[in-house]
Amino acid sequence: MKRLVVRGGTLVDHRGERRADLVVEDGVVAHVGDVRSQDAEVIDATGLLVLPGMVDTHVHLMDPGPTDREDFPTGTNAAAARGVTTIVEHTHAHPIRSVGDLEDKLGHLRGRSNVDFGLAAHVWPESIAELPGLAEAGVTFFKIFTCDTHGVPGLDTAVLSTALEQIGGIGARALIHNEDQKLTAAAEIELRSAGRVDPGLLVEWRSRDAEIVAVASTAAIVLRSKARVTFAHVSNPAVLDVVDAFRGLGASIAAEACPQYFTLGEGEVNNEGALRKFTPPARIRSDQDRDAMWDAVASSRFSFFSTDHAPSTLSQKTDVEFWDAPFGLPGLDTTLPFLIDAALRGDLSLADVVRLYSTAPADWYGLPKGRLTPGSDADFVLVDPAAEWVVDDTDIISKAGWSPYSGRTFKGRVVATYLRGVEISRDGRPHDLRSGSFVRHAAPGHEG
Fold first, then answer.
1. Which one, 41, 92, 104, 430, has the greatest CB density within 10 A?
2. What is the CA radius of gyration of the chain?
3. Of 430, 363, 376, which Cα lies nearest the Cα of 14?
4. Where does residue 121 rank: exposed (0-12), middle (13-18), buried (19+ CB within 10 A)?
């Protein structure tokens, strides 16, 4: 029996912080508390934080399919290096729409992941009959668009209603990208007719109204269907106002937060061009807007954080006209550092970091992760809260090779990441062990 003791650290969970040792036996947490046993490999965590591995439930790695933007080995190396030990992935270029698609993807991914992973399926109008089989096969959730994006068809309200009734009936989950198809399509026609090619067109094309209208209509369908859904990448507090209203009526809606909506300004697209092309776009116009987002975190209006990691290289972003540049940002390299930094600066607590980026998403999606308690997988992260570092493009492991946070100083740094008790990265350098396994969705069972 392999025995490992993480000694002297400050254990952080979703409830708070305490001084405790962590005992791992054969990849599973065996004990949490004071340990004096010498019959073990000892990791000295004095002065370090010990966190459960992060669970990022919104990741795009474009694998299988064209992987020039990202692939599983590279993307999961980025995750490992920054404390993420479980991801939920879906690629729009090679979507899962049937059990056969899922089996093919799992075969392709064998030996290609450095962290554990769940997989999401997409909902096409003609594939709704496939949903029960996919849920039984263990997909984490079903991805739905309300507008045509990334080559994926948006569902109109009638088809969306049918899909959510099906999803609710089988006890599954959905992740919904909310932008109104008619508003985005009409805006695109008008902007193209006017000859607009400047980056500023983004906020007119993918407008605040388009997001709000889709959120309101989708929330009404969620309420009636009794489905449990996540609204992806909620961009501003006005969206949360609508979500809160429907939650009050009984709708089961989780609101997903992403770092870009807390840090990047709406006007940055004018100078940065396609390096700020993601949708919904950044909404921050003032310090007050930024503070309002953190206030929403403090009042638990957001359910959890994810990255929406959707990288492209600099050339892919900048060597084409703005209309043709791909949407998306890299995020796996920077999201836990962003949250640790925010906690050390007082925007939230360290316990909030664990709750929002590990425990809560794992619980919501029925993944057996997000905790360091006896019997759980020994997925954990060591963080030095005293360290400071400046993000540089050379630090980015993702194939993107750049970050919107380059030049920013972060407090706290990931020292090492462990997957089931085995070190998978150290000092920002992943070991590329390819030891990640598929994690099936199961009915949520963790509480507290």
1. 430
2. 21
3. 363
4. buried
Cα gap 414→427, rounded to integer Å: 7
Bridge partners of 380, per DSSP, are 52, 418
Per residue in 216-262, pLDDT tens?
999 999 999 999 999 999 999 999 999 999 999 999 999 999 999 99
In 3D, which of 84, 53, 82 has the Cα closest to residue 415? 82
Query: Given its phi and psi angles, is residue 248 left (phi above 0), alpha (psi -120 to 50 degrees) or beta?
Result: alpha
Give the number of C-alpha atoms closer than 13 A to the C-alpha of residue 352, restricted to the C-beta side.
22
Distance between CA atoms of 429 and 433, rounded to whole angstroms? Answer: 12
Tell me the pLDDT tens digit for each residue of 10-69.
999 999 999 999 999 999 999 999 887 667 889 999 999 999 999 999 999 999 988 999
In the chain, helix, strand, coil percent, each to 5? 35, 25, 40
pTM as predicted: 0.96
Sheet containing strand 116-119, strands side by side = 54-59, 84-89, 116-119
